[in-house]
Design a protein that fits this description.
BCAA_transport, 41% helix, Rossmann fold, 2 domains, Peripla_BP_I, globular, Amino acid ABC transporter substrate-binding protein, alpha/beta, 7-stranded mixed β-sheet, Leu-bd, signal, 14 helices
Length: 399
């Protein structure tokens, strides 16, 4: 069957692009368009490049499973690489909107998503986030047009703190990527950990994309820390955990973080990833009918188990397109109004409810540990160790 999904890159002259963008800046279309255009801005290179292609796979499967159409029109997706940098994200989002994108999907990094959020708000274009976790993305009143269906750093750092208490850690050494969202998250954890009687015995802030953590690993080895808190993700967490394993830090200390580990990280690290604990976003072992169907379809199409990035992207896009379909309208304002306060009973991760006040999906939180996988699973997998209900990891939404 011929796919309705088309992946293209737009290259328009600046003057033509601006004129087209203005033409599409209204709240509704005068007539039904020929296609439903989605602009996807993800990291296909840079520190978070390990996630972008999986997000693309998840989105394209969500579209394929609904016959490639919404509101009776074929869905067309144009993918752009933001290089894990906000400036390219701005440039490419602007280009996609200029070519008539009716919604924007992305990004991976929170800095890029916040930059996209500002453009989407200005142009009144719906914007769907399924990966970036900075709490500022879904602050009450932040944007009418941006929605997040995935985790926040707030819920993940609360799970990391709960893990620290459950393990009765006494002394923690923190390693945080020098990036605003992770610095904010570490600062919250540090304060709350100290309130709980946990001593912070050291902290380092390596730059994004750092390739040599040996000096940090040496400082941790010489410290009396019984826990190593890593506030980083992507290639940073792979490199840090691998180098920590080379000096045996995981044998004598608990390595954990809000969102450092999934099958992608474990595959990149190898055997020394076993025992690492982390907040988990989507996971292919969640036991419900919707997830089983998705995993089967994903494995059939891509010959691999879906990553957290793929699962979250599929789940968010499927939810969004279902809501658009139910409106029966091409008016973007109606899509936004319908998605705010909507409920996804058949999410891959269980029930999700979109908060109307901040456009953040309330959902269960998953915490897991890397263990050896069993065929046909990957060699190393996340085993879900604990589930946190929304009331334990979300604050009440206040306007």
């Amino acid at each position: 069957m011929k796919s309705h999904i088309q992946a293209t890159s737009y290259r328009l002259a600046a003057g033509v692009g601006l004129a087209t963008a203005l033409a599409f800046s209204g709240n509704a279309f005068g007539a039904d368009p020929e296609v439903f255009k989605i602009g996807g801005v993800v990291s296909l290179s840079g520190t978070y490049g390990v996630f972008g292609d999986d997000m693309r796979k998840g989105v394209e499967l969500a579209i394929e499973q609904r016959g490639g159409k919404v509101l009776g029109k074929p869905i067309q997706v144009a993918w752009e690489d933001d290089e894990t940098k906000p400036q390219p994200a701005v440039q490419k989002t602007t280009r996609l909107i200029a070519d008539g994108a009716q919604m924007i999907f992305g990004a991976v990094s929170s800095a890029s998503s916040i930059a996209i959020m500002n453009i989407a708000k200005q142009r009144k274009i719906p914007h769907l986030v399924t990966m970036s976790a900075d709490d500022k993305i879904t602050l009450p009143g932040a944007s009418r047009y941006t929605f997040r269906t995935s985790n926040t750093l707030g819920m993940e750092q609360r799970m990391a703190l709960a893990y620290s208490k459950d393990q009765k850690l006494k002394r923690v050494y923190g390693v945080t990527a020098d990036y605003q969202a992770t610095r904010d998250s570490w600062e919250w954890y540090r304060k709350e950990a100290e309130k709980a009687g946990i001593e912070i015995v050291g902290a380092d802030f390596p730059p994004l994309g750092n390739r040599d953590f040996s000096s940090i690993a040496d400082k941790i080895a010489r410290s009396n820390a019984d826990g190593i808190a890593l506030f980083m993700t992507g290639s940073d967490s792979i490199t840090m955990v691998k180098q920590a394993g080379q000096v045996g830090l995981g044998k004598t200390r608990k390595i954990f973080g809000p969102v450092i580990a999934d099958e992608t990280m474990a595959a990149g690290v190898g055997p020394t990833s076993v025992g690492v604990n982390s907040g988990v976003r989507y996971h292919f072992t969640v036991d419900n009918a919707a997830n089983k169907k998705f995993v089967e379809a994903y494995r059939k199409k891509y010959n691999e188990f879906p990553s957290s990035a793929a699962g979250e992207a599929f789940d968010g896009m499927a939810w969004w397109l279902d809501v658009v379909e139910k409106t029966g309208s091409w008016d973007r304002e109606k899509w936004v109004e319908a998605f705010a306060g909507s409920v996804r009973e058949n999410s891959l991760e269980g029930r999700k409810e979109m908060n109307a006040c901040d456009h953040q999906a309330r959902q269960d939180g998953l915490w897991g540990e890397v263990v050896a996988g069993k065929a046909p699973q990957p060699a190393y997998v996340m085993k879900i160790a604990k589930l946190y209900p929304p009331k334990e990891i979300f604050e009440d939404c206040k306007q």
